[in-house]
Amino acid sequence: MSARLFRFLVSGGSAAAVEYAAFVALHWLLGAAWLFASQSLSFFCGFVVSFLLNRGWVFQSSGAFSGELLKYGVVAAVNLVAGNLAIGLLVGPLQVNHYVAKLVVMVVIAAWNYLIFSKLVFRQRIDKNT
């Protein structure tokens, strides 16, 4: 396993922990009627942690912060829409538990993010020694 993939898994796990903890707290406070609000707000919490760790530690980007944030935000917006649709399907017609549905959605989204982030979002530093 490459060092970058390992860092991606650690940072992703950290962001996922923040996102899931926020979801559990929001869902408990707001109730099931506010499922999409809990999903969306918790997703934003994970987004902040994920962007900062991916940019600074995983990909060690040297690109413009604002440009990368915009690209990351577009990917996140697509993920949020897909995640909300998926969680609605899982909890609604498929009657999956809210907490299990959230975990499933998070795993699926994480699976496609590594390639997108490494190829489309973060500019890699060039090692001047090679």
Could you please describe the fold and organization of this structure?
It is a single chain. The chain is mainly α and 130 residues long. It has one domain (3-121). Helices cover 79% and strands 0% of the residues. It is built from 4 helices and no strands.
Please describe the structure with a list of short key phrases separated by commas or semicolons.
0% strand, elongated, mainly alpha, 130 residues
Short description:
The chain is an all-alpha fold. It has helices at residues 3-30, 35-58, 65-91, 98-121. It has one domain (3-121).
In terms of topology, how is this protein built?
Blueprint: H1 3-30, H2 35-58, H3 65-91, H4 98-121
Helix pairs in contact: 1-2, 1-4, 2-3, 3-4
